[in-house]
Amino acid sequence: MSDEIRLAVAGLGTVGAGVVDLLDRNGGPIAARAGRRLSVAAVCARDRAKDRGVDLAGADWHDDPVAMAGAGGHDIFVELIGGAGGPAKAAVEAALAAGKHVVTANKALIAEHGAALAAQADAAGVALAFEAGVAGGIPIVKAMREGLAGNRIGRVVGILNGTCNYILTDMRHSGRRFEEVLTEAQDLGYAEADPRFDVDGIDAAHKLAILTSLAFGVAVDFAGVSIAGIRKVTPVDIAFAEELDYRIKLLGIGALTDSGIEQCVEPCMVRRDSPLGAVDGVYNAVTVQADAAEDTTYEGRGAGAGPTASAVVADIVDIARGRVLPAFGIPAGALEPLQRADVEARRGAFYVRLIVRDRPGVMADIAAALRDERVSLENVFQRGRAPDDAVPVVLTTHEGGEAALKRALVRIGGLETVLEEPCLIRIEDS
Ligand code: HSE
User: Fold this and answer.
1) How far, in Å, from the CA of 383 to the mean position of ligand 1?
2) Quick one: which atom of ligand 1 is closest to the CA of 197?
3) Ligand 1 mean position to 409 CA, how many Å?
4) Of 21, 135, 271, 292, whose CB has the highest number of CB atoms within 10 Å?
5) For the domain 346-428, what is the CATH code?
6) Sign (positive/negative) of CA torsion 264, 266, 270, 276?
7) Among candidate residues 23, 81, 82, 15, the one with its CA nearest the CA of residue 52
8) What are the CA-CA distances from residue 211 to residues 218, 246, 276, 297 (Å)?
């Protein structure tokens, strides 16, 4: 075994520069843990002249990441370009074809092509490592793939997008609306100029699809994730959640059910004093429910140069030490196709908020629609009194069928006294 492991780093943005900086800053302990010296032998980025605040003097520069990936002179290809297809995918495929280990932070690539790339890595006898792709600095891939290897996992639930958690936290503290908080977050650099991947739940869904695969030993199935973002969350619902001792969080949930595996990303209410309920700001957290270990929760920063570089370097150290595991914990050929849960069979407890005309008989009409669909209520209350004017009414349900509740809400939404589309939020107590 050579006493040096050589890296080719494609992409020198915040994360790429963070990796080079971390390797330099913590070179001593990293080399001791890796058992070898690590060197950045090659790099590829658009702008060679840009000052990134890191020393790249010893690295060969490349313009084409695909050519660099397949070239000689390195042992590990580190893909930090991003994007599900395009040069990132082509470069990772080229690296694997050339028998190079791959370390990537690219959740979209793994969520959309993970099973095929894992098969290619297995065939080549190399690693495809993506710790940095899920929840940044939290070592959740390692925890699930290795730390919980003795367990059957039943459910994985996570706050997987720091931008959304930041916005929801600010909305709670300030009482401001989503649009206002988003604009400020963009001005402060906490949210992207194009925020859709984050606020519409796609980024969280990429990460959830990867966690689901790790949890249940199934081929990653991003297309099977039901996705709703946070645009429709209102200050009024955040305030009602608080009154009910809940917090609204954008959760990714992967669960084994009687009809198959359920995967969803949506705003949910979680108990304020639960491990996830207490996670605020840009932080991520993941709870894994397992049969032997029971519930374990992992929390930390989900993005940024340091946390993401930490995860990339951890994968590099594993490979340098010869710890090369199947990407999803079991050989790619043994990953079962994911059997999707029957949407009609989904169950849960829910919060429903209506805006109704304050008039006798309104509650009776609402109750009749719920009775006819056999929806069991836990709590009903109206706030304020405004004869013949609009007031909010809140209902919480016991656990029951989601489809039946949605049918009742269609009928309720059609009542002349119900003034807005009902707001429905899952209560995630389990
Ligand atoms: N944009 C993501 C977030 C981090 O806000 O959490 C990278 O996946």
Assistant:
1) 36
2) 1
3) 33
4) 135
5) 3.30.70.260
6) positive
7) 15
8) 10, 25, 17, 14
DSSP category for residue 30: H
Contact of 122 with 329, CB cutoff 8 Å: no
Q: Where in the chain is the domain with CATH 3.40.50.720?
A: 4-137+308-334
Q: In terms of CATH, what superfamily is 140-301?
A: Dihydrodipicolinate Reductase; domain 2 (3.30.360.10)
Q: How far is CA 195 from the centre of its chain?
A: 15
Q: Is 406 known to be catalytic?
A: no
Q: Which of 192, 197, 198, 286 to mutate to test the pocket of ligand 1 (most atoms within 8 A of CB)?
A: 198
Residues with CB under 6 A from ligand 1: 161-163, 198, 203, 302-303
Q: How far apart are CA 177 and CA 11, in angstroms?
A: 36
Q: Read off the tokens for 177.
A: 């609306």
Residues of the chain with CATH 3.30.360.10: 140-301
- The protein residue whose alpha carbon is closest to atom 2 in ligand 1 is 161
CATH number for the domain whose boundaries are 4-137+308-334: 3.40.50.720
DSSP state of 287: E
pLDDT in tens, 125-155: 999 999 999 999 999 999 999 999 999 999 9
* pLDDT value at residue 430: 67
> Looking at 100, 142, 207, 249, which residue is catalytic?
207
The residues with which 39 forms a beta bridge, in sequence order, are: 6
Contact 265, 226 (CB under 8 A): yes
Compute, in angstroms, the gap from residue 164 CA to the centroid of ligand 1.
Answer: 9
- The CA-atom distances, in angstroms, between 410 and each of 143, 352, 405, 419 are 42, 12, 9, 13
pTM for the full predicted model: 0.96
> Which tokens sit at 144?
């699930």
Residue with tokens 């984050």: 198
Percent share of the chain, pLDDT over 90: 93
DSSP states along 48-77: SS---SS--TTSEEES-HHHHHHSSS-SEE
Residues 330-347: pLDDT tens digits? 999 999 999 999 988 999
CA distance 214 to 328: 5
Q: For residues 221 and 225, give the distance between their C-alpha atoms in angstroms, rounded to a whole number.
A: 7
Alpha helix positions (H), 274-401 = 305-320, 362-372
